[in-house]
Design goal:
The protein is mainly alpha-helical. Among the domains are: 80 residues; 132 residues. It has 55 helices and no strands. The relative contact order is 0.03.
Length: 1087
């Protein structure tokens, strides 16, 4: 405390001494002033010196006033933070201490602060111990550099605080975790933090026990539940930190989370916060969770049990998420991110038991669980599909409407994700759904779910399969659309669109009835009618696509439909309506072709207007780099976020707000490509406007808009090329050449900088389209070199979107050929990566065709062969290996003998792929082996024994028809290249036994050509003479196989005709053929 009276000291003399030249006097004066600073009258006396006659004295007084004020403020803050009885005020004062300390501590003006911290941490008063935690948090937030040397001590103090008897001290310690994290910089810190994690788990365990005991404040919240929430939040913050702060305790963390989530006595918010930990682990550490098989099983069991909980009595679906929905979300994430083989068995065991329960909540949970795992566990669900559908069809007859509704939705989800197997059960599923609607007494919610299930089911049916159901379906949809249930109109129109798409031209008899209904809904006024209006517009586009302009009902109406869609843009300001309108115009353009040309100027202007709108908060910056402005998660590039957007950014891309305008822009951008394809001359006339639109969309922050631009760019380039009279590969006009140059540069940029795989795949596919359409004559040599380099980069895994993600520290990494992604079997990212590799693979034959074999062969052998073979390595995903095998075959086929140097490396890998589990891989590998052996017989010769042995296995009756047909083609090509040097006595009967081919009939040509060549040579004919009867029988079948290539059929006929003149024993064999085969052979031989 300051003294009441100032000592009898001459303040003016002290100030004068401080300003003098006598160093000793100045030091003595400064010491005296410092001792005076604690007196109460010191500050008022200094303030009076601000009016001193001497300017230097006034200036010095001002400096001393500032110092005195600061010192008194610091003293007062420490006194108040120690003595303030009210918690909220104490926190505010602690924040003020942190703000003042930011300047005072670095200047070494507040040595008392650290002493205060040490005293508070060791104090016997809980209020003082809380103050220590509050001050630690404030100082770590504002003075990280100053606190860094004290992190070890702070961690020890916080760990001790979490065992404190005072909940307020524990709370303050937990709130200090977040500002502490950036200071955890060494291995010692990490190890000490592991102790803090253990203390947090202990605090949560004690709080859970307190909250769930009778009278412990379970349902009413209170301090224990608040503490649990803080523990979960702190653990989640630690989990998202780059260092492995939770790794040793991850199972214990999840055990705690499951215990909290499963405690029915707790509030919903507390349980949901605990499940956030499970969400994080499922998304970002799935491998670690998958290793904990028992823990994973307990997690699935706990979530299934939560799904059985009844809705709270005071449940309000507008303001809260009930426990069953929380559990369903978590179960969905487990199914999506962990192997289905580990998640589904527990789910299925639960469903089969719960479906038979007398409790409707359990029966509802059985359907709900199957709903949420349908996508992630699609593969194991296929094996249980008959039983699962039987369970759900039984639930459709349940006496409880919630059970029936959940079952309907589950059937819809299976129809979406368990394709095509689910369609085999249409005779059981569709009648059950239709009968339930037709039975009446169906609420609107149940009606909408039933229509959704029908919609999802019929969407992928074939015209032949859906035809028997057309009458009941159209009757149902007509009744719903003419009924008063406005909420069901959207679902009914969506279902109608699916019926139209599935039925194709078989829908024609219903067009007269449906067209007026759709025209009514597409012009319905009011905001409430917008969802149905959008679906009606979509359905009209699909109707045009299905029936075409030749339909007598729809054809004449098409111009009026286009006019109505165009007019609708001005009727109401709705991004969703404009999105559906752009999509419908694209469908109509594809159908009408040049008939759409008069509408292109207006449609293009509307597309440009859509793309010029502002669309949300944009975030740009390099992912994880210094100065990054990315506000999204830095821990994963997972695309399963709620807004459908990937917040991870790279190379200047990033978008953290998904709006309807983004969907509108993507639709408008795709529509531009449709206009260019349909009406090239009209699009060329608007090329300047459309090129500017696509250029802007190609650099848009959202990946869907970029992908749409990448898809449309080559279509506009080729439209301008065709409009100037250019054919594929012909010299391009100056306008087309200039546009192509700009397009190629735009399309090459994503490979270097775009983080989104789908957008890059679209860019690579677009490059292939430009190269194929314009050829070397339409592109500069430098651009072609850039395209070749881009293909090599993608195949090597060096595109920006293929940067290895190191979030999961136990990832195994990628294999040869680059690409560090490690995708699960059901991971959407794996499908996108396959699309990207497929697009890059398509570039290779396109380049070969554009520049010619002689120019491309050295590029292929030096730049592309290595990365392509890398994609054939065993550690690559099955789909990628199949793509690589197919690409290798296409390139070698185009290059011919120039590709011979590739044979030595390629054949061993292709022979291994002949034994792959996937039949597509075996098919592609067989085709590639045949091409390589045909184009490089000398290099292939050492591998012939192994190759023939591997191919022989593909002729088994149980083999996939496509793989067997390509094996026949491969053997045929080997015979064409090597002839009698092969063991034809053993080969021919196997080859003839595979004829006629069943699926890939194009492979009939090399098979017939090879057999014809063998029969034309007397020596080899003699060797295969015992096999003439089955060979002639096979050729007879081929002669009448209309789907077989005409060249192969003629080859068979002419071979037999020539053979008949030199081998008399052939005549009776030909005479024994059926009459239609004899007649076909005669006609083909003479044709």
């Amino acid at each position: 405390m300051a003294s009441a009276q100032a000592p009898p000291v001459d303040l003016d003399a002290l100030l004068a001494a401080c300003l003098g030249f006598d160093n000793q006097a100045r030091k003595a004066a400064e010491k005296a002033l410092k001792s005076l600073s604690s007196h109460a009258d010191y500050l008022p006396e200094l303030c009076r010196r601000l009016e001193a006659p001497d300017a230097q004295a006034r200036q010095l007084a001002a400096v001393l006033v500032r110092r005195a004020v600061q010192a008194q403020v610091r003293t007062l803050l420490l006194q108040r933070v120690m003595n303030e009885p009210l918690h909220s005020v104490r926190r505010a004062v602690a924040d003020a201490v942190g703000a003042v300390a930011r300047l005072a501590v670095p200047a070494q003006q507040w040595p008392e602060l650290l002493q205060c911290l040490q005293q508070c941490a060791a104090s016997g008063a809980a209020e003082h111990r809380e103050v220590a935690m509050l001050l630690f948090a404030a100082l770590m937030e504002t003075l990280g550099d100053y606190m860094a040397p004290h992190v070890g001590g702070v961690l020890a103090a916080m760990t001790a605080a979490l065992t404190d008897s005072s909940p307020a001290v524990q709370t303050a310690a937990l709130q200090a975790v977040e500002p502490l994290l950036p200071l955890v910089a060494t291995q010692d810190h990490v190890r000490a933090f592991h102790g803090l994690v253990a203390a947090m788990l202990g605090a949560a365990e004690r709080a859970l026990a307190a909250a769930t005991q009778p009278g412990g404040g379970g349902g009413g919240g209170g301090a224990p539940q608040e503490l649990i929430i803080l523990v979960c939040q702190a653990l989640l913050e630690a989990a998202e930190f780059p260092a492995p702060l939770l790794q040793p305790a991850l199972p214990a963390v999840l055990e705690m989370a499951l215990a909290v989530a499963g405690a029915r006595a707790l509030e919903a918010d507390t349980r949901e916060q605990a499940l956030q930990l499970l969400h994080w682990v499922a998304r970002f550490k799935p491998k670690q969770l998958a290793r904990q098989k028992q823990l994973l099983r307990r997690a699935v069991d706990a979530l299934c049990a939560m799904c059985c909980e009844p809705l709270p009595a005071d449940y309000d679906d507008a303001s809260e998420l009930p426990p069953q929905q929380m559990a369903a979300q978590a179960l969905d994430l487990l199914a999506l991110h962990l192997p289905g083989s580990q998640v589904f068995p527990a789910v299925w065991a639960f469903c089969t038991a719960a479906a038979a329960s007398p409790d409707p909540n359990q029966r509802h949970a059985a359907a709900l669980a199957l709903t949420v795992v349908a996508e992630g566990c699609a593969e194991p669900l296929r094996k249980r599909l008959p039983e699962a559908l039987a369970l759900l069809l039984g639930a459709l007859r349940d006496g409880d409407e919630r059970v029936r509704s959940a079952a309907a939705f589950a059937i819809g989800q299976m129809a979406e994700y368990v394709q095509p197997e689910v369609l085999e059960h249409h005779a059981q599923v569709l009648p059950a759904l239709l009968d339930l609607i037709g039975g009446g007494n169906v609420s609107q919610d149940l009606l909408e779910r039933l229509i959704y299930a029908i919609d999802a089911y019929v969407e992928n049916m074939s015209p032949e399969t859906i035809l028997p159901y057309m009458g009941p379906l159209m009757g149902l949809l007509g009744a719903v659309l003419s009924g008063p249930a406005a909420g069901a109109h959207k679902e009914a129109l969506s279902c109608l669109a699916s019926v139209v798409a599935a039925a194709g031209r078989s829908f024609a008899p219903y067009a007269t009835t449906v067209l007026p209904v759709l025209q009514h809904f597409m012009s319905a006024p009011g905001q409430d009618a917008l969802p149905a209006r959008c679906k009606a517009i979509e359905c009209l586009g699909m109707l045009a696509d299905g029936l075409g302009p030749s339909d007598p009902t729809l054809g004449p109406a098409l111009p009026g439909i286009v006019e109505a869609v165009l007019a609708g843009f001005a009727s109401v300001d709705s991004a969703e309506l404009r999105e559906y309108s752009h999509l419908a115009l694209a469908h109509l353009a594809e159908v009408m072709k040049e008939g759409f040309a008069p509408f292109v100027p207006r449609a293009a202007a509307l597309a440009a207007a859509s793309c010029e709108q502002p669309d949300g908060e944009v975030v740009r910056g390099d992912r994880g780099g210094e100065g990054s402005e990315d506000l999204g998660s830095a821990d994963s590039d997972d695309d399963g976020s709620d807004d459908g957007s990937d917040d991870g950014s790279a190379g200047g891309y990033g978008f953290n707000v998904r709006t309807g305008v983004v969907d509108e822009k993507a639709a408008a951008t795709r529509a531009v490509g449709a206009y260019a394809e349909a009406a090239p001359a009209a699009a060329a006339a608007a090329a300047e406007l459309l090129a500017a639109l696509l250029k802007g969309s190609a650099t848009h922050p959202h990946e869907e808009v970029r992908a749409a631009a990448n898809e449309s760019l080559p279509k506009l380039v080729l439209a301008v090329h065709r409009a100037s009279g250019g054919a594929a590969g012909a010299a391009a006009s100056p306008a087309a050449r200039a546009l192509a140059g700009g397009a190629v540069e735009l399309l090459l940029d994503p490979i270097r900088s775009d983080p989104d795989t789908a957008a890059v795949a679209a860019a690579v596919a677009a490059l292939a389209a430009v190269v194929e359409g314009l050829g070397a004559a339409g592109l500069e040599a430098q651009q072609l070199e850039g395209v070749a380099a881009a293909a090599a980069a993608v195949l090597s895994g060096k595109a920006a979107c293929q940067e290895e993600d190191d979030d999961d520290d136990d990832d195994d990494g990628g294999g040869g050929g680059g690409g560090g992604h490690d995708y699960g079997d059901d991971d959407e990212g794996g499908e996108e990566e396959e699309d990207l590799i497929s697009a890059a693979a398509d570039l290779l034959p396109a380049l070969a065709a554009a520049v010619g074999p002689a120019a491309y062969a050295p590029v292929f052998l030096s730049m592309h062969l290595g990365p392509l073979l890398g994609r054939l390595k065993p550690q690559q995903p099955s789909g990628v290996r199949g793509i690589a095998a197919g690409a290798l075959a296409e390139v070698c086929e185009r290059l011919g003998a120039l590709a011979a140097p590739a044979a030595e490396q390629a054949l061993p890998m292709l022979i291994r792929e002949l034994r792959a589990e996937d039949p597509i891989n075996r098919q592609n590998a067989a085709f590639a082996c045949g091409i390589v052996a045909h184009t490089a017989p000398q290099q292939a010769a050492p591998h012939v024994p192994q190759l023939l042995q591997a191919l022989h296995a593909l002729f088994r009756p149980e083999e996939d028809p496509g793989a067997r047909d390509n094996a026949a083609g491969a053997v045929g090509r080997m015979l064409l290249a090597m002839g009698g040097a092969l063991p034809v006595e053993q080969i021919v009967p196997v080859l003839v036994g595979a004829l006629p081919l069943q699926e890939d009939l194009e492979e009939t040509a090399p098979a017939c050509a090879a057999l014809g060549q063998l029969l034309a040579d007397a020596a080899t004919r003699q060797r295969i003479a015992p096999h003439l009867p089955p060979l002639i029988t096979a050729f007879g079948h081929i002669a009448v196989q209309e789907a077989a290539p005409m060249a192969a059929r003629k080859q068979a006929a002419r071979t037999l005709a020539a053979l008949q003149s030199s081998a008399p024993e052939v005549a009776p064999l030909l005479a024994a053929l059926p009459a239609d085969q004899q007649q076909a052979l005669q006609q083909l031989a003479s044709g």
